[in-house]
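**Backbone geometry record:**
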Amino acid sequence: MNVRIPDPLRSYTGQAKSVEAFGDTVDAVLADLDARYPGIRFRVVDEQGRLRKHMKVFVNEEAVRDLATRLQPGDDLTLMQALSGG
């Protein structure tokens, strides 16, 4: 599965804009990413195992908040950091 990485997290992936990862749920893909790029999951998921408030995850083009969301072969996962400001 192709995972798009936001600019602030690219230091974990050697500046790669997208990487391959495997898993049948969003959480499994994040665990696979963390095995390859240690520390990246903690930037996306908090200590309670929930998606951090400033993070957005898209499966294909649909926003999801549930880490148990099932994935299909060929899906694209996009990680995004929400921007705020005034």
